[in-house]
Design goal:
Layout lengths: L4 H20 L1 H10 L4 H10 L7 H7 L5 H7 L9 H18 L9 H14 L6 H7 L7 H26 L4 H10 L5 H7 L4 H13 L11 H18 L8 H20 L24
């Protein structure tokens, strides 16, 4: 069995859109508005942090690595006055499944049951160590339909990868707030988009730029130096290497079946039009015409 880290990245590009509609589908926002969550971010933190339970704001801040501490404090713990974690878990799954149905997907969609079963097997066999948000989602009851199961499996896989990514950033001395600036400097996402979506003042952004520049990672123009590029490539490679462990429970034939089943579903989700071209996750769409795992 010969697998490269690139397999994990290609897998991410296929399951992340299935999960990410929970942040972008209009029906999700409508449901959260109806519950009384004013603005996008309160609903975001309530839904994504719900599997952790009603934990202190410090626990959410530590887990949601690259977000503004001030933004989190504005949301937590006030969000739990609106809905309990259990209620948010149910609403999050129900609205995500409704969005997927809106794209024409159902339990009867060709390949969906296979994709749900294999993605679920991958998620349940992924290592727990050092992955708090993944672990919190893993203990939730497994959904009783294939479509909901696929969304839940995609959620587990992306939190598994995300927890690993945070661990690598911490090990390399890149703070959560610096990590966004570093991501922009690598050309992954536009600066204005990240400043807006991750709540930076000009002063905080400039401070992160100075810190990274003093370490020799950024040029005066704000792009990566050779050292910065080497570190960025190392972080991404290590992230892929750790994420590859999520496929350890599947043999090569099962991995190929998973890619063959999941890739057309991902294309259908993207064709639904709710996922923007630019997201903080820097999703790649240029290989989604290829259903193969390339093993």
């Amino acid at each position: 069995m010969s697998r490269t880290p690139q397999l994990a990245r290609r897998f991410f590009d296929r399951y992340e859109p299935v999960h990410a509609i929970t942040y972008f589908a209009p029906g999700v926002r409508t449901a959260l508005d109806a519950m009384g969550f004013v603005g996008f971010w309160r609903g975001y933190f309530a839904a994504r942090a719900a599997p952790l339970g009603q934990v202190p704001v410090e626990a959410v801040t530590a887990t949601f690595y690259n977000f503004s501490t001030e933004r989190i404090r504005k949301a937590v713990p006030a969000i739990w006055d609106i809905a309990t974690p259990a209620e948010m878990i149910a609403v999050r799954q129900d609205t995500a499944v409704a969005a997927l149905r809106g794209y024409g997907l159902s339990d009867a969609t060709v390949g969906l049951a296979d994709a749900a079963e294999l993605a679920g097997l991958a998620a349940r066999s992924a290592p727990l160590d050092g992955r708090p948000l993944f672990a919190a989602n893993l203990v939730l009851p497994w959904p009783d339909t294939a479509l909901a199961g696929l969304w839940h499996a995609a959620t587990l896989l992306r939190e598994h990868r995300g927890d690993g990514h945070v661990a690598i950033l911490v090990a390399e001395g890149i703070s959560g707030r610096e990590s966004n600036v570093f991501h922009v400097a690598a050309g992954a996402v536009p600066a204005d988009f990240i400043k807006r979506s991750r709540d930076y003042s000009n002063e905080e952004w400039d401070a992160c730029v100075r810190s990274l520049r003093e370490r020799g990672l950024l040029t005066p123009a704000g792009t990566l130096t050779d050292e910065g590029r080497a570190l960025k490539d190392h972080i991404e490679l290590r992230t892929d290497m750790l994420a590859l462990s999520a496929l350890s429970g599947l043999d090569d034939e099962a991995v190929e079946r998973l890619f063959q089943a999941l890739t057309p579903i991902t294309r259908q989700v993207i064709a639904g039009g709710d996922l923007p071209a630019a997201t903080p996750m820097a999703l790649r769409r240029d290989e989604l015409d290829d259903n193969s795992a390339r093993l």
